[in-house]
Design a protein that fits this description.
Strand content: 15-25%
Bound molecules: NADP nicotinamide-adenine-dinucleotide phosphate
CATH architecture: 3-Layer(aba) Sandwich
Order of helices and strands: EHEHEHEHEHHEHHE
CATH class: Alpha Beta
Strand order of the largest sheet: 3-2-1-4-5-6-7
């Protein structure tokens, strides 16, 4: 349908939330999905869910905050499938604090998971993708990487960094048929945002022209589209999925 059947994808943070939804949606189009995250029990559930729907998936324990785990995980996935054609760098964490109270550790944890992890995993999988002369790299950034957000200097820096990385890499690999794009979700109801209090969520809701919070099902189709054959002329793009919360162009 969208030319994706038979392709191989790797989705990080596939154990829950947006990553899980992306994995399910890609699998529905006939993509075989390597599911990566730390929580193996949850990955097994997602794998079972995909298989029950007639799709194909394998689970891989992978900690994107650990270079060793990334190298080992990438090697195992490449040994299993020979290549990764679609990489969705989705794993992410928050450690919110006002800048004056933020510990070095809060900064380092967020940057190494959200940004350095995405870079190292991309690098580990890029060579076969370059050889294959076809690829899709999709980085899950955030509206906050465009607008900033009080209490999130670490998270906003990591997500803005992903946008810069997306555009720089898009220029490097375009001649090999590889596109690199970012998706910037707004306020999406997932375990990550479940910790926000009523005051925080109603402040965000007031800024959403479409009048509702987003769901994982709002984000996954954007990722599937960017992975598709039809999106082959789109690269270095940042796709907002935010209900109109920020219309940055
Ligand atoms: P979530 O429900 O908290 O899920 C985060 C996922 O990342 C989990 O599957 C988690 O798996 C994985 N993860 C975290 N640290 C990891 C690590 N060190 N190694 C491997 N996997 C790791 O969050 P979400 O809302 O779905 O967010 C997914 C992405 O969308 C994140 O990058 C987030 O920043 C971004 N985003 C979310 C929103 C929103 O409103 N929800 C808005 C904009 C952007 P394990 O714990 O099993 O490792």
């Amino acid at each position: 349908m969208n030319g994706l059947g038979g392709r191989i994808a790797l989705v990080t943070g596939a154990s829950q939330g947006i990553g899980r939804a992306c994995a399910l949606a890609l699998a529905k189009t006939g993509v075989t999905v390597a599911l990566a995250a730390r929580n193996e029990a949850k990955l097994a559930e997602v794998k079972a869910e995909i298989e029950a729907a007639g799709g194909q998936a394998e689970a891989f324990a992978l900690d994107v905050a650990s270079e060793e785990s990334i190298q080992a995980g990438a090697k195992t996935v490449l040994e299993r499938f020979g290549k990764v054609e679609i990489l969705v760098n989705n794993a992410g964490i928050t450690r919110d604090k006002l800048a004056m109270q933020m510990k070095r550790e809060d900064w380092d944890d967020v940057l190494s998971t959200n940004l350095t992890g995405a870079f190292l995993l991309t690098q580990a999988l890029l060579r076969p993708m370059l050889k294959n002369r076809w690829g899709r790299i999709i980085n899950i950034s955030s509206i906050v990487g465009r607008t900033g957000q009080a209490g999130q200097v670490n998270y906003a820096a990591s997500k803005a960094g992903l946008i810069g990385m997306t555009r720089a890499l898009a220029r490097e690999v375009a001649s090999r048929g590889i596109t690199v794009n970012a998706v910037t979700p707004g306020y999406i109801v997932t375990p990550m945002t479940a910790v926000l209090d009523e005051k925080q969520t109603s402040a965000m809701m007031a800024q959403i022209p479409l009048g509702r919070a987003g769901t994982e099902a709002d984000v996954a189709p954007a990722v599937v589209f960017l992975a598709s054959e039809g999106a082959g002329y789109i690269t270095g793009h940042v796709l907002d999925v935010n209900g109109g919360m920020f219309m940055g162009g």
